[in-house]
Amino acid sequence: MNLASTIFLASVASVSFTAQAQAVAETPFMPTSGTVVIVPAYGEVKHVNDQVVATLAIEEQDKDKQAAASRVNQKMKQGIAIIKQADPQATLKTEGYYTYPVYPEPRPLADSAPAKARVATSWRVGQYLQLTTTNLAALPKTVAAAQRLLTLNGLQFGLSPATTRKLDDERIAVTYQNLHQRMSSIARAMGRKVSDAVLDTVDFEGSGAYAQQDSTASASMMRSAMMKGESAQVEEPSFEPGETTLQMRLVGKVKFR
């Protein structure tokens, strides 16, 4: 093949490629007038936990049921007084009072021996106390003081109602902004301007996909083993409140003019 033929073929290929590119560029988008687009949007906000719910408990065991109950009542009363002094702003709630018998371990009986009725050897009495506070700075000192009499049975960090309400405003704004951003991207892909679209319906959490972690969703849980309360001084425990993430799902129905 001579030079002239090569140049000719190259020119033909170049013209063909240019024509194809121009044809693609000039290809009109499908008609979108009246098109309805369903757009899901997402948003989330994070915040350091500013509230804690602690579960404290007292338990006593004695052959005398009344004696065990009396010690539980006395220590719970003293424990409440200690907590109120350490953290006056804390909200306290007593719950879960229980009393039940303790039986000895069953022994194997001979085949001919008659079964005997079980007789309780002692009674176990206990009660729980729920402490709710936003004074996290004093929490180690408060818990250490309470542990002189009570045991720490559970600790759950979360967000206070005031913070939750504030974050809900932010969460809605962030989610709605994400809807606008996604709609703008969809409009460009369809060859339309976002101003050509009309937001017909906004369904917050309508999909059912949104689920806030109950701090109930959302929160860090710490457990400690049940232990006998002592009157000796207790070293302050260390706590890290962590943070909570609140999520939201939004579904928008958009119609192009």
Describe the sheet with the most strands. Answer: 5 strands, antiparallel
Helix content: 25-40%
User: Count the helices. How many?
Assistant: 4
Strand order of the largest sheet: 3-4-2-5-7
Radius of gyration, CA atoms, in whole angstroms: 35 Å
List key phrases describing it.
257 residues; alpha+beta; three-stranded antiparallel β-sheet; 4 helices; 8 strands; 32% strand; elongated
How would you describe this protein?
The protein has 257 residues and is of the alpha+beta class. It is built from 4 helices and 8 strands; from the N terminus they run αββαββαβαβββ. It has helices spanning 3-26, 65-86, 139-146, 161-189, and strands spanning 36-48, 51-62, 91-102, 122-133, 151-158, 197-204, 221-223, 243-256. α2 packs antiparallel against α3 (139-146). The longest helix has 29 residues, at 161-189. The two termini are 58 Å apart.
Topology at a glance:
Elements: H1 3-26, E1 36-48, E2 51-62, H2 65-86, E3 91-102, E4 122-133, H3 139-146, E5 151-158, H4 161-189, E6 197-204, E7 221-223, E8 243-256
Antiparallel strand pairs: 1-8, 2-4, 2-5, 3-4, 5-7, 6-8
Helix pairs in contact: 2-3
Brief description of this entry?
By secondary structure, the chain is of the alpha+beta class. Helix content is 32%, strand content 32%.
